[in-house]
Design goal:
Order of helices and strands: HEHHEHHEHEEEHEHHEHEHEHHH
Strand order of the largest sheet: 1-2-3-6-7-8-9-10
Strand content: 15-25%
Mean pLDDT: 92
Low-confidence stretches: none
Number of helices: 14
Radius of gyration: 19 Å
Amino acid sequence: MITDALIERIVGMKNPTCVGLDTSFDYLPDEMRAGVKDFAGAAERIFDFNKTLIDRLYDVVPSVKVQIAYYEMYGVPGLKAFEETLRYAAEKGLIVIADAKRNDIGSTAACYSSAFLGETKVEGNASRAFPADFLTVNAYLGTDGIAPFVDDCKKRDRGIFVLVKTSNPSSGELQNKLLADGTLVYEYMGALVEKWGEGTEGKYGYSAVGAVVGATHPEEAARLRKLLPHTFFLIPGYGAQGGNAQMLKCCFGADGLGGVVNNSRGILCAYRKRGGTYYDAARAAALDMQRDLASVLGL
C-alpha cells in the first residue's frame, strides 16, 4: 500500500521530509543559465539540476514533490522535463508526488487520473503519461470529481492529497467560512476526505486519500489532526513560507507519524545562503531539516 511505503521510508530514514522540485530556471546557478535562450534549453538545464539534486538526496529524504506549474511555463519542453524528473526520481526509489492540483467533472477527472495515476491506452497498448505515486487534487467539484482518482488509488495502489487547509495567507477567505450547521469549510472538506479514504487504510491506519494541511495554520492543523485519524497529511509551508518544526508538530500523532513536510525553495536555493555548490548546499539543508523535524517529533 503506497501510504505504508511512504511511512516506512520516513521511519527508516527518521525523516518526514518531501523535497519540492518546484524548479524555476531562475533558481539555477549563473553558470547553468549561461547561454540559454529558449524553452528547450531552459528545460534541459532544469532537468540536469533536478537530476543532480535527486542523486544527492535520494538516500536521505523519502519523497519528492514535483510542481507542474514550474514546468508548464516552459511549454512542451518543460513538460518533458517534468516527466523525466518524475521517472528519474522513481528510478532512485523515491516516493513521487505530482503536484498538479487536478479536478473537473467525472469524465474529465478520469482523464486526469489516467494521466498521473493510471494508464492511457492507444490501440490496446497502455502507457503511463506522467507516472506518480501520489497526485494533489482539488475537490471543489465534490464527490463525482474525486471518485475517478479514488478508483485508481484502489486499483493501482496510488494515493492522492486533497486540498483541505492550504498554507497561503488568504486561504481563510473561503476555507475558514462558517457553514449553517456551525462547521467550518475546511473541517467539512476534511470530513469528506476521511470518508473518501474509507476502505483504503494500510497497516499504519492511514488511507490512500490524504490531505494538504499547511504548517502556517497550526490551530486549524491541530483541529484536523483530531478530526481525521486515518488521513495522512502533506504539509507545505515549512521554511520560506514561515512554518517551523514546532508549528507543525500538531500535524502528527504521538508516534511522530501522520504526515510528510514539504520544503522547496529552502532546499533548491540553499546555495545562495550557504555558498558552495547547489547540490552540496541542498543536501546540507535537507539534513538540517531532518534533524529539526526529528528533534520535535521524536523520530
